[in-house]
Amino acid sequence: MSAARARTEPDIKLVTWSTDRSVPALTRFLKRAAVDPKAEEVARRVLEDIRRKGDSALVRYIKEFDGATLKPSMLAVTNEDIQSAREQVDREFRLAAGEALQRIMRFSRASMRRDWTISSPKGGQLGERFVPIDRVGAYIPGGTAPLASTALMTVALARVAEVPEIVACTPSDKKGRVNPYLLYALDLAGATEIYRAGGIQAIGAMAYGTKTIAGVQKIVGPGGPYVTAAKRLVYGQVAIDMVAGPSELAIVADDSASPSHVAADLLSQAEHGTGQEKIMLVTSSMRLAEAVRKELLKQSEYLERRETVIEVLKKGTLLVVVETLDIGMDLVNQFAPEHLELVVREPRSWLKKVRSAGAVFVGQWTPECAGDFAAGPSHVLPTGGTASMFSGLTVDDFRKRMSVMLFTSADLKEVMPVIQAFSRVEGLDAHARSAMVRFDRK
User: Fold this and answer.
1) What is the pLDDT of residue 1?
2) In sequence order, what DSSP letters do the residues of 369-390 get, joined into one string?
3) Is 431 a catalytic residue?
4) Which of 339, 341, 368, 379 is labelled catalytic?
5) Global model pTM greater than 0.85
6) Which fold has domain 3-31+246-388?
7) Catalytic residue among 40, 271, 295, 338
8) Among this protein's residues, is 338 annotated catalytic?
9) Class for the domain spanning 37-242
10) pLDDT tens across 189-202, in order?
């Protein structure tokens, strides 16, 4: 190995852990921030500028951050652009995108909650209705990698939910061109409007609205640290799906796992490009951990994004050897990863022990990449430990839930003592009277 190559080879951290000892490297790894404070400072400034100045600020930041010189009239993707993209996309990808879309839509339709009712005790009805949001915005990363799969795994869900206006924002290159594969996927999935805007500025435009891009009611989709920070800052102005930032993968494995398979899966999540990805192996086998460390170094040599991967291997990788897998599973639940693979004997029996993860991949034949591209559930998932309290994107994120109550006079009469009691305790006599007046004899 050359001296230059040796200098770039990362020192991948491998630690042992038990419940009675503290490991600083592990503590730091678990306590990562969901949102980068420095990114939030930048996002706050940019968002306020866009809120006040609209299109003029939007195109200025597109030039500053993406290097594209665009006029507001150039932001919207046209039908001619879409037709050009169709002509550039190869047949193999068209077939793959169509297959992925059908799987995503099938899963979404099956998971969608239905309106329901039950009878009230005295002949009325109680239930819930679900109605689509009127206008949603999907952010599709396109800078370090054109995430055509994300176009399908956001927009297609909105389409199944029957959202009438589906806005998509994605960055262009310096010449104002949107990647044709990404554009093809957005059109295939059902986006009704597509704009050349990325990063914080796209989130601001969708949240506050500009003359060119009308505001939305909810923003969904993943992004790097700056997009993640921007989404959190506009929460309240619009709804958001979750904190979906740099990718994460934890693998729980025993000595039955293949070191080359485990390493390959870990590397798949290290190549996204932000440098803030997190990958973690938890195993009861020191032999496996050491073999995986060797495989990570070996396999990373041949990856196109080696520099990006090496950054994650240096700063965002941890191999943890535990006394038992039960202890290891407790550790993973503390980590609350975006993605979790169970590469163990009898993996289904371990599934019940998972409490916090965005998505779980069960067994050696379910690599995380299957979820990224083909399985059916959306790959837009909570990161930064927020899988302990948030769930991944589903079709119901594009709908509003309304509770529905239909009382008969007998129902209201039956609950009158309850209404009166709470009205008395809370000092809200008009509440009680609004029920009692219905029984006043005229």
Assistant:
1) 44
2) HHHHHTSSS------TTGGGT-
3) no
4) 339
5) yes
6) Rossmann fold (3.40.50)
7) 338
8) yes
9) alpha beta
10) 999 999 999 999 99
